Amino acid sequence: MRGRKRKMAYYRALVTGATSGIGAAFARELPDRTALLLTGRNDDRLSEMRAELGRPGRQVDCVQADLARTEDRDKLISRAEEFGIDLAAAQRRAAMTSWTRTCAFIPTAWM
Ligand SMILES: NC(=O)c1ccc[n+]([C@@H]2O[C@H](COP(=O)([O-])OP(=O)(O)OC[C@H]3O[C@@H](n4cnc5c(N)ncnc54)[C@H](OP(=O)(O)O)[C@@H]3O)[C@@H](O)[C@H]2O)c1
User: Fold this and answer.
1) What is the pTM of this model?
2) Hey, which of 15, 36, 96, 108 would you mutate to test ligand 1's pocket, going by the most ligand atoms within 8 Å of its Cβ?
3) CB 73 less than 6 A from any atom of ligand 1
């Protein structure tokens, strides 16, 4: 993200690797009004992140997925579409991207 003005523009965000490290840090940095779709393998940590980042009126959804598994990637793609995130566009642009006021931050390798 480049500066606060840009950061404030996101309405919906998908964060992979959201249970620790750079992904968790990115999720914490997003503004309170940004709806979050968090993913990782560890369900307990996902629940902790949802509890930590939940705010009144904010949507925080979690998808437990191992991105090394085809079926889990398909599940995430489908949940992201329901959530309003165009993952095909994210894959084309790689890593972190933003468009039409949504963003996807994908530190975890997308195979
Ligand atoms: N930290 C940096 O400064 C930096 C800089 C450049 C690039 N990177 C890259 O960014 C990535 C994250 O780095 P990090 O330092 O934040 O590492 P980290 O603390 O180990 O975090 C890894 C995250 O990815 C998730 N994850 C790992 N394997 C997964 C899989 N197969 N499916 C789904 N989720 C998976 C983990 O969640 P679960 O355990 O819940 O699955 C965790 O949330 C790495 O690929 C690293 O090489 C990091």
Assistant:
1) 0.83
2) 108
3) no
Question: Which numeric CATH code is attached to 3-105?
Answer: 3.40.50.720
Residue 21 structure tokens: 């490290």
- What phi, psi does 48 have (nearest 5°)? -65, -40
Instruction: Kindly list the domain boundaries of the chain, sorted by start residue.
Output: 3-105
Give the HSE-up count for residue 44: Cα atoms under 13 Å, Cβ half-sphere.
0
pLDDT in tens, 64-93: 999 889 999 899 989 999 998 877 766 655
pLDDT digit string, tens, across residues 22-73: 899 999 999 898 899 999 999 999 999 999 999 999 999 999 999 889 999 8
